Amino acid sequence: MRRPTLHTLAIILALSALGCEREDLRYPSPDPEPAPTDTTQVVPPQDDAKVRDLAARTAGVWSGTLDTRYVDFRGMTVTKSCRTQMTFLLDEAKAVGGMGVEVDSLDGKQVFRMSFDWQVGGDGRLCLVYADTRTMYSSLYTFSGRSLTLRLVKNDGLETDDYQLERVGPN
After folding, report:
1. Is the pTM of this model over 0.85?
2. What is the DSSP string of 14-61?
């Protein structure tokens, strides 16, 4: 039997490395079977004034913690926590949403940054569409003074993000 050459071994090693999935802090490849979606907080339909008020209250800079749970490429549920800052800029023409950016950090180092479009729907739920086309909807969206508690669920149910935020600046 012929022994593999160093060149052949290098090619095999390179090809095997290409098949590995990279595990990011937050958005791994989705599993084909979606997890159940959290729908415990159903918000009654809102009138336009209440929707505009929710959007105006959401606008601004928020900082706090993020606990994320997702199903990874192996089908395993992964839970991770980090610090986050979310900026919601209100589009005055729309009055119910706008653009924003999320910046997550771990041990003082930025690990995730992505822009998003956001809007408060007629049902009073917050919807974020990230630049990578991921869509997240709120199943919990409550204010208490300068605090915002937010649970976002990915539209396929494979990710749930829980935010505990404090307002740190105006929009």
Report:
1. no
2. HHHHHTPPP--SS--PPPSSPPPP----PPPP--HHHHHHHHHHH-EE
